Amino acid sequence: MKVLRTPDERFIGLVDFPFAPNYLDIDDQDGGTLRMHYLDEGPADGELVLCMHGQPNWSYSFRKMIGPLAKAGFRVIVPDIVGFGRSDKPTQRSDYTFDRHVNWLKSFIEGLDLQHINLIAQDWGGPIALRNVADNPDRFARILVTNTGLGDAKGIPLEKSSELHRLLSETPVLPIEEVTKNALGAVDGRPGFFYWIKHCDAYADFDPGEVMRFWLNDCSDEECRAYAAPFPDESYKQGARQFPTLVPIIPDNPSIPDNKRAWKVLEKFDKPFLTAFSESPLPTRGPCAKFLDFKMYKNEAPAIVRFQQDIPGARGLNHVTIADSGHYTQDDAGEELARVAIEFFTTA
Fold first, then answer.
1. SS3 call for 17
2. Which of 158, 196, 256, 301 is surrounded by the fewest CB atoms within 10 Å?
3. Are residues 314 and 308 in contact, defined by beta-carbon separation less than 8 angstroms?
4. Of 235, 271, 231, 243, which is closest to residue 117 (Cα–Cα)?
């Protein structure tokens, strides 16, 4: 496996990010090792909080939450998923699979021997971490999920696979503005998410920094630079490009059997499990909202309903809706999400 490592100078002087880097070598699932980066803040003997980011961002996205969590007495660990941040970046798209991401995180958790984990998981951090919860539930104490899910193509007949593959192959490659417009619902019979898959897969100017600028309520030039820092050129972006392709929304996806097995475990998981999704799937301010000129959409994602109804630990809790936030809750509403997490982790 050929691997790139983003030069350290790319991370010098990032705005509002004073945290020291830490590194751990993990099994690369291909006969070698990878180096994963993580932040480790707060008291060493504090109750553990593990924060898992999504795509196309990195541990920088949790910068607004780390201080409040640490001040509340928690030890806060925030890894960069392989392919992101300061973690190693395999150069081939085929190096990235759902199972490898799950096992890379498993190797990280075991390498640090993390126990009694309070989990905060957003976007791709959710499915990767929830598969680990299902594989080793004893390591986890409480779960907080925000704008994420664990897909297994539930309700989609297997015989629809060929039609969905055709629709995906025929989906045009569009700039981020047009992707966002189409992502709010089905267009011409195809899921809106297909436009995001094709943008990441093939758009020549795919730029994680500009994506975050467009999709956040507020993103300064310096914050945009920070989100782009891990990706000096195209060769570093293969993990970010591949993630949407791995989402199991077509029923013949190879990760679906393992995700279904994970759901069997989660359907018996009785430890506290809180949903804290944003009210809108897209930001209410900033370039995206101005471009769309739409009123706030109520987020009624099937993932919320499934989490709350099917996981025993979620029943009876006061689930939270985060106002004035788009998909990236930890950035748009980091202080509020930290407050919700502290209350949940200290009272549930």
1. coil
2. 158
3. yes
4. 271
339 burial via Cβ count (<10 Å: 0-12, 13-18, 19+)? middle
Tokens of 161: 């696979």
Nearest by Cα to 329 from 71, 141, 127, 57: 57
CATH superfamily, domain at 3-347: Alpha/Beta hydrolase fold, catalytic domain (3.40.50.1820)
Instruction: Detail the DSSP E strand segments found in 42-185.
Output: 47-52, 74-79, 89-90, 117-122, 140-146
Q: What's the CA gap between 43 and 48, in Å, rounded? A: 9
Q: How far is CA 134 from CA 12, 55, 130, in A?
A: 37, 22, 6
User: What burial class does residue 260 get, using C-beta atoms within 10 Å of its C-beta: 0-12 exposed, 13-18 middle, 19+ buried?
Assistant: middle
User: Cα–Cα distance between 123 and 144 in angstroms, integer?
Assistant: 12
Instruction: Using alpha carbons only, give the angle 177, 183, 188 rounded to the nearest 5 degrees.
Output: 110
């018996």: which residue's tokens?
268
pTM value is: 0.95
Residue 296's pLDDT is 38
Task: Starting at the earlier edge strand, list the strands of the sheet with 117-122.
Answer: 22-27, 33-41, 74-79, 47-52, 117-122, 140-146, 273-278, 320-322
Residue 52 CA to residue 237 CA, distance in Å, equals 19
**Average predicted confidence (pLDDT) for the chain:** 93
